[in-house]
Amino acid sequence: MNILLIGDSGHAKVIADIVNSSGNKVVAKLDDKYAELFKEDGCWFGPVSEVSNLIEKEQAKVIVAIGANSVRRKIVERLALNADQYATAIHKDAIVSPSAVIGHGTVVMPGAVINAAAIVGDHAIINSRSVVEHDCVVGDYVHVSPGATVAGVAKLGEGVLIEAGASVTATKEIGRWSVVRAGSAVMGNIGEYTTVMGVPAREVTSEANELKL
């Protein structure tokens, strides 16, 4: 399968490795830092406005390779593509249960584990060596960062960011566009647009949630 990446930064490099590890091919990297379309070493580079042209030219599917959840959502809304025009990328060293459901545009990185009956939404990032346990529900545009753990039956709303090494205990719910800071442990439900940190995690009242739209 030919893959077109939206974004050409460090996150895109990681996704390109995942695509290549699965025997597929990155044929284009589109980013508005490029003023015009050009080809180098067999790969197209150019502005995001070239996406429709290159989807047709290369018979490619798209992944939005942007790490920031809110920016990723804005780009998806800007592109206005059909769901079947997006690819899902799962690294060969990830462990994904056959009963798990993974949405379109989502990326599962090396060493990640998604266990039985988990549901992961669209355009999410399940990062390196993170764990999404059985029966979890992970919303669209969520990022579960490296080494983070989401225990069984937990629910993460749209756009939630679980930073590196943080944990969410079983059955807990985190409202949309909330942030769990690195190394924290969530032991109770968290509302929408809330930033928490610590063990147990508590709201950071002095810090604005930069992901609020």
UniProtKB/TrEMBL annotation:
Gene3D superfamilies named in the record: 3.40.50.20, Hexapeptide repeat proteins
Domain PglD N-terminal stretches: 2-79
Protein name as it appears in the record: Acetyltransferase
Membrane spanning stretches: none
InterPro entries to which the protein is assigned, alphabetical: AcTrfase_PglD-like (IPR020019), Hexapep (IPR001451), PglD_N (IPR041561), Trans_hexapeptide_repeat (IPR050179), Trimer_LpxA-like_sf (IPR011004)
Pfam families: Hexapep, PglD_N
NCBIfam families according to UniProt: NeuD_NnaD
SUPFAM superfamilies: Trimeric LpxA-like enzymes
PANTHER family reported for this sequence: ACETYLTRANSFERASE, UDP-N-ACETYLBACILLOSAMINE N-ACETYLTRANSFERASE
CDD domains for this protein: LbH_AT_putative
Lineage: Bacteria, Bacillati, Bacillota, Bacilli, Bacillales
